[in-house]
Amino acid sequence: MMIDAHIHLDHYEEHEQLLLLEQAEALIAVSSDLASCMKIHDLASVHPAVKPAYGFHPEQSIPSSSELETLFSWMEVHAGEMAAVGEVGLPYYKNLESPLNYQPYIELLERFMDFAAKWAKPIVLHAVYEDASIACDLLEKHGVAKAHFHWFKGDEMVVKRMIRNGYFISVTPDCVYEKEIQQLIRIYPLQQMMVETDGPWPFEGPFRSKRTEPWMMKHSIEKIAEIKKLSIEETMRILYNNTKKFYEI
């Protein structure tokens, strides 16, 4: 009884996708660009367990105006089938490598937020550390209440703000070995939490050199249960229900 709240399903080979679908009741399959959106759309049309999220991953160069118009036009056509807008956000890691002009990324994120508000869809955010505060400002500005900060990392002040605003986070299998994520789990309410793989992103610790798959979330759930001092069964039930309710699946 698990749902992967964030996975790049189109980055797997077809035979791998079928294997992943056997390991979870549903997969929230996020997109990285228009081509990715189309692949996820095709997968969702064949596999009901694939719940599509359409968007543009921020850790890449901003598309041209015409490319963006094509993307948003396509999303308008397919808005009815979307579970969420995503993955969208801000380029924290790209900016670390080489400082960027953030304004175009902020403007694009605002456009995605307007889209989410118009269609009453949740939004899946890539916004960590300092970027999380910017994302919170924009969510409040655009009146988007259902926000999912995937694989979140950030300071205590922004964590408190996110909790107060009712935003959700999801944790990856790195919670098994990363002290920073374990501390976040201690602080964040279980009722506002989900689990994900962010597959095929690879992990360390007991998952080193293994293909990232939904079965790894069982280990995440065990760690969350340990930290929250709950049974594994109760923890799994709460996380499962959180995800079903958040994404209305």
TrEMBL record:
Residues annotated for a divalent metal cation 1 binding in this entry: H6, H8, E87, D198
Keywords: Hydrolase, Metal-binding
The keyword Hydrolase is annotated on this UniProt entry: yes
Coiled coil: none
InterPro entries: DNase_TatD-rel_CS, Metal_Hydrolase, TatD-like
UniProt key word Transmembrane helix: no
UniProt GO molecular function: hydrolase activity, acting on ester bonds; metal ion binding
Superkingdom of this protein's organism: Bacteria
SUPFAM superfamilies: Metallo-dependent hydrolases (SSF51556)
Binding positions for a divalent metal cation 2 per the UniProt entry: H126, H150
Gene3D superfamilies given in the database record: Metal-dependent hydrolases (3.20.20.140)
Family note: Belongs to the metallo-dependent hydrolases superfamily. TatD-type hydrolase family.
Pfam annotation, one family: TatD_DNase
Entry protein name: TatD family deoxyribonuclease
